[in-house]
Amino acid sequence: MSDYIIAPSILSADFARLGEEVDNVLKSGADWVHFDVMDNHYVPNLTIGPLVCDALRKHGVTAPIDVHLMVKPVDRIIPDFAKAGATSITFHPEATEHVDRSLQLIRDQGCQSGLVFNPATPLDVLEWVIDKVDIVLLMSVNPGFGGQKFIPATLEKARQAREIIDRSGRDIRLEIDGGVNADNIGEIAAAGVDTFVSGSALFGKGQDSDPNRYDSIVKAM
Ligand code: DX5
Ligand code: ZN
């Protein structure tokens, strides 16, 4: 695994013009669309569901849609997102009773699967399910809101996750989510991360997404 991937989080996009915002950021060179799903239960915020994912596909978005579930329970929404056109689905191990089963369910639905680790969640569970994981997503903020500050301890966790992934010899992406910007993306990449979610640094609420912001993030790597 080598190429870097930029996955703009549409959480910071202008939802009234979502299709246009996504088109703009993809035209600027972004690779994936990061799709944050919040349920006002697992996290204290409420966002978007499968209908919006389906709407983006119908709008003509062909890029991978990276669904980040911040919901509890996890399993019952997985088939709906698969049908709505999700490419990958990641969830937090704390939010499901049976981590292995939820990972398998995602793959059975034809999507790539992933686990998301909150800042204070250890990586322990990973080694027991590593053969069912395509993405390891490290939260570098506490989940629930865009625009928070990057938690520096995540860099050490990224180095540890990189070691675990390399030792496994598997084709697994190491993704980071929260507070990523042009100033810190270089050191995050140096810690072994290959996939970068960025919301507020790429989208401005109520403004056109600015291609130069994307360019500055990529150039900083
Ligand atoms: C937080 C979300 C993130 C967040 C990223 O719970 O998972 O995807 O919106 O936004 P920024 O880049 O603004 O931290
Ligand atoms: Zn996210």
Structure in words:
There is one protein chain. With 221 residues, the protein is α/β, with parallel strands linked by helices. It has a single domain, classed as TIM Barrel (Alpha-Beta Barrel). The protein has eight helices and eight strands. An eight-stranded parallel beta sheet has the order 1-8-7-6-5-4-3-2. The model has no long low-confidence stretch (mean pLDDT 94). The structure holds D-xylitol-5-phosphate (DX5) and zinc ion. D-xylitol-5-phosphate (DX5) is lined by residues 9, 11-12, 34, 36, 68, 141, 143-144, 146-148, 177-180, 197-201.
Q: SS-based structural class?
A: alpha/beta
Largest beta sheet: strand ordering: 1-8-7-6-5-4-3-2
Distance N terminus to C terminus?
16 Å
What is the count of β-strands?
8
Identify the CATH class.
Alpha Beta
What small-molecule ligands were found?
D-xylitol-5-phosphate, zinc ion
State the major sheet.
8 strands, parallel
What's the gyration radius in Å?
16 Å
Kindly state the percentage of residues in helix. Answer: 25-40%
CATH superfamily: Aldolase class I
Silhouette: globular
Number of domains: 1
